[in-house]
Amino acid sequence: MALEFWRAYRENRGALLGLAVVTVIVILAFLADVIAPYSPTEQFRDAVRMPPVWADGGTWRFILGTDGLGRDMLSRLLHGARVSLFIGVSVMSVSFVVGIALGLSAAWFRGALDVVVSRVMDLIMAVPSLVLAILVVAVLGPSLANTIVAVTIVYLPRYVRLVRASALNELSKEYVIASRVAGVGPLRLMLSTVLPNCLAPLIVQAALGVSDAILEAAALGFLGLGAQPPIAEWGTMLADAREFIRSNPSLVTLPGLAILVTVVSINLLGDGLRDALDPKMRTS
Amino acid sequence: MLKYFLRRIALTIPTFVALMFVTFVAIRLVPGDPVEVRVGERGISAERLAHFRHELGLDQPVWKQFADYMWQLVHGDFGTSLVTNQKVLTEFAALFPATIELGLAGMLIAILVGIPAGAMAAVKRGTWYDQLLMGISVTGYSMPIFWWGLILIMVVAEGWGLTPVSGRIDLIKYYFPPVTGFMTVDAWMSGQPGAFLDALHHLVLPAIVLGTIPLAVIARMTRSSMLEVLNEDYVRTARAKGLPPRRVVGIHALRNALIPVVTIIGLQVGTLVAGAVLTETIFSWPGVGKWLIEAVGRRDYPALQGGVMLISAIVMLVNLGVDMLYGVINPRIRHGS
After folding, report:
1. Cα diameter, chain A
2. Measured at the alpha carbon of residue B125, what is the angle toward residues B123 and B128, in degrees to the nearest 5?
3. Which residues of chain A are within 8 Å of residue B312 when distances are taken between CB atoms?
4. Long-range contacts: A89-94, Cβ < 8 Å, 24+?
5. Looking at this predicted complex, what is its ipTM?
6. Burial of residue A213 (number of CB atoms within 10 Å: 0-12, 13-18, 19+)
7. Contact flag A139-B27 (C-beta cutoff 8 Å)
């Protein structure tokens, strides 16, 4: 089955490219401490706002230059990859687990629980994502942890609705009725009979959810409501660089490019997963 | 039909009440006393403090506070800003047209470019044009638009000097009283030479930034919807009876392909609002998005609370409207369930 999946996946060139780039980014993030030439928070007061090596006045000492406080951009970008992936994966894992729990419970118990869960999810979906995230952060206070909380709340409904809808669909099928008749208990029925059959769309959602979470967290960081200094977070780095947009364009270009490349490759990977896992969901 | 409408409206009401409850609770969870924010650092007498607490209703039991809050909302009172001491609704209403103008312009670009580009990609499926467009589209909907805005400012505004960097119009050259709140319309009506073009000039770049993600989504949706329709029997029939390809694609296929696209366009309203917060911040566009962020920065919680309420209510109403419109267009929805 894995082989069959891989055959379908590798047909898609974009998906292969996405997988390759994501792999590189993950490795760089893991090895950030080893690869990065300096600490992401170390300030070189003698080398503030150095241009990158290819520009006039750049040196090999700071390959991508330094920011307004003399911190090495390359080191900050590498550590930023770690922060962004950490946010993306945390949001995805929590939403995945909570989404399955809430979605399956709503589908199994129906009645009041289903109504409450569904209405709460409707409410979350009704408020524009970034506006809700801003509200949550304004209440909890800006920090990396609260960014994760806010973004998780914003994207949770997608998981819950997906699990609930596919579980409801599966519950009406004959194999579920058969296992019920055979005396399988509710917990086992939901987790080992129904859930595996809902997984394909959920995995796709999880992959695409990582990129959405990274983008949303970077937007919060850019607005000054995300990870706080001196954490090297790409959105925050962009916000800091805004005042140097004329003098040091690379300070603006690089963090955004890092966000864009990461998000595009995760999306390509997610699209590839969707096409390979479920031919019915193919967009073309 | 009426039953469908009523049902849809009835489903929106509990969500709306829940929204009131959530904004009410959220603001009470904020650390720090709203009275302290207002008092500042100098401190005041206990008597004045009690007076302020009474004025803000903080000496009442919580359930009473919520009931009062709902009562006020229903009567159009969305609170008073702690910083400017103005009604939140007044401030919001003054800034809202700027956001709508930007949103409409962004959506217009997205639709005018997205639909033809997507339809073209479907017709030329598998060619380099198709692949290029889909590549651009993935990049578009993955775009951190706050960065995209800065890059465009850097290249188009600063580098090439083609557009202004920020604002809605050159305030030194042109002045006219706001009538509609839409700068382009007001400029047109003022009759001052060059004013309309200047307003348009200011609008272009932010609108492109805001329209980027919807553009990518619309292009993708049009392409996949078009691909499905192009295989339908009625398209084959149209081709077989010898209609020119342009007519087959442009009329027979595109019209039917657009139904799901219309839904997607409606669903972009939330995306537009979220995008407006970022776009307005970058371009110093005086709309409700920028105002909301400033309210957070100033710890002006009533403004934040009222702003979130108003924005969400508007988005909910638009979504409701889109759903109803969809019911009118698509008979299957109207009669089913």
Report:
1. 77
2. 115
3. 126-128, 131
4. A89/A210, A90/A148, A90/A152, A91/A148, A91/A151, A91/A152, A91/A155, A91/A209, A91/A210, A91/A213, A91/A217, A92/A206, A92/A209, A92/A210, A92/A213, A94/A148, A94/A152
5. 0.91
6. buried
7. yes
Smallest CA–CA distance from B306 into chain A, residue = A135
Which two tokens mark B96?
Answer: 């809202």
CA distance A250 to B324: 48
- CB neighbours of B42 closer than 8 A, spacing ≥ 6? none
- Give the residue among B188, B214, B187, B184 at the shortest CA–CA distance from B275: B214
Q: Kindly report, residue by residue over A143-199, the tens digit of the pLDDT.
A: 999 999 999 999 999 999 999 999 998 888 888 888 888 888 888 888 888 888 888
Retrieve residue B74's tokens. 């229903």
Query: Which residue in A141, A223, A284 is closest to B227 by CB distance?
Result: A284
Collapse the DSSP code of A64 into the 3-class scheme (helix H, G, I; strand E, B; otherwise coil) and give the result.
Answer: coil
**Record: contact A223-B319, CB cut-off 8 A:** no
Which residues of B fall within a CB distance of 8 Å from A263? 142, 144
| CB-neighbour burial class of residue B332 (10 A; exposed 0-12, middle 13-18, buried 19+) | exposed
CA distance A266 to A274: 12
Q: What percentage of chain B's residues is helix, strand, coil (to nearest 5)?
A: 75, 0, 25
| pLDDT band with cut points at 50, 70 and 90 for residue B236 | confident
Are B146 and A120 inside 8 Å of each other by CB?
no
Nearest chain B CA: its distance from A128 CA (Å): 5
SS (H, E, C) B14-58: HHHHHHHHHHHHHHHHCCCCHHHHHHCCCCCCHHHHHHHHHHCCC
Residue with tokens 């159009």: B76
CB B110 within 8 A of CB B214: yes
Is it true that the peptide bond before A279 is cis, omega within 30 degrees of 0? no
Distance from C-alpha of A284 to C-alpha of A95, rounded to nearest angstrom: 28
Q: Are residues B142 and A235, on separate chains, in Cβ contact within 8 Å? A: no
Q: Find the CB nearest A256 among B138, B151, B223.
A: B151
Segment B267-299, tens digit of pLDDT: 888 889 999 999 999 999 999 999 999 998 888
Helices (H), A62-143: 73-109, 111-126, 129-140
Cβ within 8 Å, pair B274-A129:
yes
